Amino acid sequence: MSEYTLSEIRPTDKRNRRLQEALLKKEGIELDKNLDYSVGLFDEDYNLAATGSCFKNTLRCMAVDSSHQGEGLLNQVVTHLMDHQSERGNFELFLYTKCDSAKFFNDLGFYEIARVDGKVVFMENRRTGFSGYLDRLRKTRVEGERVAAVVMNANPFTLGHQYLLEKASAENDVVHVFVVSEDVSLVPFSVRYELVKRGSAHLKNLVYHETGSYIISNATFPSYFLKDADLVIQSHARLDINVFKKIAEALGVNYRYVGDEPFSQVTSIYNKIMKEELDAAGIQCVIVPRKEESGSAISASKVRQAIKEGNLEALKSVVPESTYAYFTSPEAEPVIQRIRRAEEVIHY
Q1: Structure pTM?
Q2: pLDDT score of 185
Q3: Cβ distance 319 to 187 under 8 Å?
Q4: Looking at residue 187, which CATH number applies to its domain?
């Protein structure tokens, strides 16, 4: 039986990073760009036999060299990653895996949330995590003939977001507003959530929710075991929609409102799949044309670009007063500096 050494693989460790990339590629996996911790199991000759990584509270890029399979190495890697996450204070863990690997992770204490057959399974390490989230949502259920939902990142909240909520509010008895709470945006979740509430406070039939880790952002959806860029977008959309269907059932939602997307190929494909899937499930997907300013669609990307360029005056015509007041206050200075330091603020 071989002896193995467990070692961290740092981004600056070029040799081991090359070994990690080669092992993953051999097993049909690309190295994810979103990683903040990686580890490897090395044999006596310091060849890489198994590897795994983390990004925030997710486990990623886990593989065992085919010549070492059957030795329980992936179990060791996953156990170590879970211990590492515990040390970081992350006790609610998530992972995405191929469908044929789901049983392995189930045996390690992970439970299925949703899947796209033949592509990807979304899992967590709490038996009652998602079911508990749904139970909490049910407590906010409001009966009505038309019950709508809107999911937004609002990075930051613009007049376009406000227009979408105003339309949904006017056309429905109640609107459940979900703000994506994964903190991977330039504007932190706590700020985004508050700006959504302030900018829509005049609408009296809205119910606000955090998404937790259950509605997945583009930034954290894993693409490392899907080969084609469009397949990544489609799989992300179908997985996210399968999760949303369960949320909709808990709340009695029968309409979902989304803004159309003239700028983003990703969101355009996402919206097309969403409409097909939700309409088939009896949930009407309403795609609302974007609100325009001076002949151009309002977008959060353009707002971030204006902030990056130091042109806060340009915000006046495209964001609510509450958003403008925030970005011209001392409280916003750390967020403004974060946006100005970012290499890329336009997302496609």
Answers
A1: 0.90
A2: 82
A3: no
A4: 3.40.50.620
